[in-house]
TrEMBL record:
InterPro entries: Acnase/IPM_dHydase_lsu_aba_1/3, Acoase/IPM_deHydtase_lsu_aba, Aconitase/3IPM_dehydase_swvl, Aconitase/IPM_isomerase, Aconitase_4Fe-4S_BS, Aconitase_4Fe-4S_dom, Aconitase_dom2, Aconitase_mito-like. GO terms for molecular function: 4 iron, 4 sulfur cluster binding; aconitate hydratase activity; metal ion binding. Pathway: Carbohydrate metabolism; tricarboxylic acid cycle; isocitrate from oxaloacetate: step 2/2. The lineage of its organism: Bacteria, Pseudomonadati, Bacteroidota, Bacteroidia, Bacteroidales. This is Aconitate hydratase A.
């Protein structure tokens, strides 16, 4: 088999152990696995020294880059401005986000190829020109494809999708980033990251019954919340870890993104080796075996983990039960045994209307076969399936193999619809047919996110996250409070029957198979290819550099919006129908903050324009300020920018002349994206100062002439009645990031200093 990135992999493993040994000499202590991978990927080996976790910024040299089609457009438009002949590291583009799930794979894929042809042609031509691997529409979801083809133990990867940490199941430090960060790596520049804190998670025991790897991370989300992993790597270890399959580990690492974690990873073990071999990468497995000693933490770390990790969690797998997390946030963790009480107490709609399985989180062969074992019981035991079932396979290899092994036909026998190998409902690409798209209802998914409006655009859809097997069981029962471990169901004859525990195979007995993967390998010598962008296109638009800071004070800026409550990147830049504008900054900016709640009136996309005292869409008001040469300010609460890595949520306000985002706290990726685009991301030194911001305020930022690391800035609020409030704001900018701000963006700075 032709191994992708073969030269890079041989070079990597030839020197990896030697690099780790050098790190141990300098550190003079045992190392965690995360430390081995991080320090082995320093951009400059001469900069090897002990870095302070959670404090020091470090320059890294990742091995590869992965991009999904929605974010790849903006990343590659930025790369085209960098003046490079080809990418500096192996890279791939995956067309998985733009396919609308509606009627089934055949119809939906055909429609997507037609409606998105302009974007697919752009991405294909850019990939050919700059030596990038191209996975076309229908080839599969980025993270499942990466796991099957590119992930390798000990490696480091960045990806323009927040669930890039999926590859941690293979032992990679794989980090979700914005497009500007990806461009740094693609152009051979240092990739900067604050040295993460380390959270060790010791797994003991073994999962049993209806419990699955998905329930492990759903349980941990309940412990740590969506902020608990911010600026940290979760490193799993222990005897329990060895009992989890590689794809199960990938599921756990995938949803570590919901903790706000930099990434998660598992050490190399026999399961990793077997997965590499079963997916045709025996050569990589052999190289990993030779480096196995440094593909896990040192023994002393496992013997005394509290000494080497910043925090240690203990999780007994035998005590984990199936979970339903939600609604509206992935950290609202509920063991299924508690739903009978919790559901009615919280006025949840208890009828399950749709069960959705698959996605980048849970679409392995093992996931599909375990879920199918539950479906077969409905057939064999004559149990009616109460809810609609939708299946999204993770890759063409999974789909093809599952079809060959009659797994998909089992789903189809109970009326399930098999959608394209794409993200679909998981990212709002779902044209749901329902009697009322505003009606309160419940759905259960094996996806990773369940923010309000995310799946189907309905703010009253209560989405709950569970494992594929639990999702199927609840779809069969048609109720949220059905516990398959204890509760019976009525068959069509009125008899009470019970579901047996799910069972499935980790790997297909006949091996994986695929017809056409939908892959175009990187080509050499393609510089003569012209990447054409129609100037009149509504989908694609060449980027113009943002203006540099003029050195003047930021004074008397109106408040564009004061956001109340949770504000994810979905709220800032919605997906769904807006995905088609991901390559056109001007057009997509029309969705700016349309999902955010205005603290002054409790409404969405309805804010006051201080120029004429009328209420309008957020983007309309921002455009008005911009047209008058006025910058504006966004004020927000905790964990602003949680969720997807989409840098559009930073580029849109930048394009519409928002100068400052002032929040109680930021999600890691979004804060970096704001910095990369030349904006000020500031936090309240005293969070109570959020309450001082009024609707008609004029905001000034004082002290920029002395902008420096660890030095606070001062915010003044000039109220409509003439009174003034003054308070301090914090920031996390280092010297380089301050230069990005001054240059107008990180890309501007890089071009100016080539």
């Amino acid at each position: 088999m032709n191994i992708p990135d073969n030269d890079m992999l041989h070079s990597f493993y030839a020197s990896y152990s030697e690099r780790v040994e050098r790190v141990k000499e300098v550190m003079k202590r045992p190392l965690t696995y995360a430390e081995k991978v991080l320090y082995a990927h320093l951009y400059d080996a001469a900069e090897l020294k002990p870095y302070r976790r959670g404090v020091d910024y470090v320059n890294f040299r990742p091995d590869r880059v992965a991009m999904q089609d929605a974010t790849a457009q903006m990343a590659l438009l930025q790369f085209m401005n960098a003046g490079k002949e080809q990418v500096a590291v192996p890279a791939s583009v995956h067309c998985d986000h733009l396919i609308m799930a509606e009627l089934g794979a055949g119809h939906d894929l055909s429609k997507a190829r037609s409606s998105n042809r302009e974007v697919y042609d752009f991405l294909k031509s850019v990939s050919r020109k700059y030596h990038i691997g191209f996975w076309g529409p229908g080839a599969g979801i980025i993270h499942q494809v990466v796991l099957e083809n590119y992930a390798f133990p000990g490696g480091m990867m960045v990806g323009t999708d927040s669930h890039t940490p999926n590859a941690g199941g293979m032992g990679m430090v794989a980090v979700g980033v914005g497009g500007a960060d990806a461009v740094d790596v693609l152009t051979g520049q240092p990739w900067e990251l604050k040295m993460p804190r380390l959270i060790g998670v010791r797994l003991t025991g073994k999962l049993s019954g209806w419990a699955s790897p998905k329930d492990v991370i759903l349980h941990i989300l309940g412990l740590l919340t969506v902020k608990g992993g911010t600026n940290a790597i979760l490193e799993y270890f222990g005897e329990g870890a060895k009992s989890v399959s590689t794809t199960g580990k990938a599921t756990i690492c995938n949803m570590g993104a919901e903790l706000g974690a930099t990434c998660s990873l598992f050490p190399y073990d026999d399961n990793t080796d077997e997965y590499l071999c079963k997916t045709g990468r025996e050569e990589i497995a052999a190289m990993a075996r030779r480096n196995a000693r440094h593909l896990s933490a040192d023994a002393a770390v496992y013997a005394d983990p509290e000494k080497y990790y910043d925090e240690v969690l203990e999780v007994e797998l035998s005590k984990i039960e199936p979970h339903l997390n939600g609604p509206f946030t992935p950290d609202a963790a509920t063991p299924i045994s508690q739903m009978k009480a919790k559901g009615p107490a919280n006025d949840y709609p208890m009828k399950v209307e749709v069960g959705l399985i698959g996605s980048c989180t849970n679409s392995s062969y093992q996931d599909m076969s375990r879920a199918a074992s539950v479906v077969r019981q409905a057939i064999e035991k004559n149990i009616p399936v109460k809810a609609e079932l939708i299946v999204n396979p993770g890759s063409e290899q999974i789909r093809y193999t599952a079809e060959r092994d009659c797994i998909l036909s089992d789903f189809e026998k109970v009326g399930a619809t098999v959608m394209a190998n794409a993200c679909g409902p998981c990212i709002g690409q779902w044209k749901r047919h329902t009697d009322d798209n505003q009606r309160k209802n419940a759905i259960v998914t094996s996806f990773n996110r369940n923010f309000r409006r995310r799946a189907d655009g309905n703010p009253n859809t209560y989405a709950f996250i569970g494992s594929p097997e639990l999702t199927v069981a609840l779809a069969i029962a048609g109720r949220l409070d059905f516990n398959p471990a204890t509760d019976g169901l009525l068959d069509r004859d009125g008899n009470t029957v019970f579901l047996d525990e799910p069972s499935g195979l980790t790997f297909p007995p006949k091996g994986f198979a695929v017809g056409d993967k939908g892959f175009i390998a990187p080509a050499e010598g393609q510089q003569d290819i012209e990447v054409a962008i129609d100037p009149s296109s509504e989908r694609l638009q060449k980027l113009e550099p943002f203006e540099a800071w003029n050195g003047e004070a930021l004074e008397d800026m109106p408040v564009l919006i004061k956001v109340q409550g949770k504000c994810t990147t979905d709220h800032i830049s919605m997906a769904g129908p807006w995905l088609k504008y991901r390559g056109h900054l001007q057009n997509i900016s029309d969705n700016l903050l349309m999902g955010a709640v205005n603290a002054f009136n409790g409404e969405t996309d309805y804010v006051k324009d201080q120029l004429d005292a009328t209420y309008k869409k957020v983007s309309t008001v921002a455009k008005d300020y911009k047209a008058h040469g006025i910058g504006s300010v966004v004020v927000a609460e905790e964990n602003y920018g949680e969720g997807s890595s989409r840098e559009h949520a930073a580029m849109e306000p930048r394009y519409l002349n928002v100068k400052v985002v002032l929040a109680k706290s930021f999600a890691r990726i979004h804060e970096t994206n704001l910095k990369k685009q030349g904006m000020l991301a500031l936090t309240f030194a005293d969070k109570a100062d959020y309450d001082k911001v009024q609707e008609d305020d004029k905001v000034s930022v004082l002290g920029l002439e002395h902008f420096a690391p660890n030095e606070q800035l001062v915010i003044t609020l000039r109220h409509a009645d003439g009174t003034v409030d003054r308070f301090k704001a914090n920031h996390t900018y280092n010297e380089l990031q301050i230069e990005w701000f001054k240059a107008g963006s990180a890309l501007n700075y890089s071009k100016n200093n080539r």
